[in-house]
């Protein structure tokens, strides 16, 4: 679908949804400085030709205004004349959309996801097992376990984008960049938000578990 064929109502609805979720995440402290970016696909789900709204580069997410987002195409290039610049990480969003077919991607930097991505960085994945919120990722197994991929955080974003196809796990709707942050996605903004919240809960549990002393010895 051509960008010009997308209705103004659909564009404004996407922007309104992104601004609402941005305000929510900012209130939780998930956008320190000018970090993080959220995006939402608009106008169809073709794997080869699509458009999405994404947070502009260099904006303080805690201060909402009408120039927080812009629309870009499959290659991350602006679809309209604008003074706003897409973040270099737009390339990562575009690749995730292309590979997964998802409808929304949310990227945040938190203390827990940053520290765990570094702690498990050499392993290439953060392991999680038996945590209830894993079910909110759509995994319903007794004593379920997942491996959340950790990718190296290269300065050259194109090098990261090239790793995405071979790193994603179909059952895990998220990836970490080492010592940087998480990208979580879903079929729409509501599902992406739920997945991100679940990941952040899992990360906090894992981090706090590392601080606990050994548990009491089992009897028998």
Helix/strand layout:
Elements: H1 8-27, E1 37-42, E2 51-55, E3 69-72, H2 90-100, E4 104-108, H3 111-119, E5 125-129, E6 145-151, H4 157-167, E7 174-177, E8 181-186, H5 189-211
Parallel strand pairs: 6-7
Antiparallel strand pairs: 1-2, 1-4, 2-3, 4-8, 5-6, 7-8
Helix pairs in contact: 2-4, 3-5
Features:
8 strands, 220 residues, MethylthioRu-1-P_deHdtase_MtnB, EC 4.2.1.109, 8-stranded mixed beta sheet, alpha+beta
> What portion of the residues fall into strands of 2 or more residues?
15-25%
The number of domains: 1
Order of helices and strands: HEEEHEHEEHEEH
Outline the biggest β-sheet: 8 strands, mixed
Q: What's the total count of β strands?
A: 8
Strand order across the largest sheet: 3-2-1-4-8-7-6-5
Poorly predicted regions: none
Radius of gyration: 18 Å
Number of helices: 5
- For the termini, the CA-CA separation is 66 Å
Q: What does this protein structure show overall?
A:
This protein is of the alpha+beta class and 220 residues long. It has one domain (3-211): L-fuculose-1-phosphate Aldolase (3-Layer(aba) Sandwich), CATH 3.40.225. It has five helices and eight strands, in the order αβββαβαββαββα. An eight-stranded mixed β-sheet has the order 3-2-1-4-8-7-6-5, with helices on both faces. A hairpin with an 8-residue loop joins strand 1 and strand 2 (51-55). Helix 2 (90-100) runs parallel beside helix 4 (157-167) and helix 3 packs across helix 5 (189-211). The longest helix has 23 residues, at 189-211. It is globular and about 65 Å long. It starts with 7 loop residues before the first helix and ends in a 9-residue tail after the last helix. The model has no long low-confidence stretch (mean pLDDT 89).
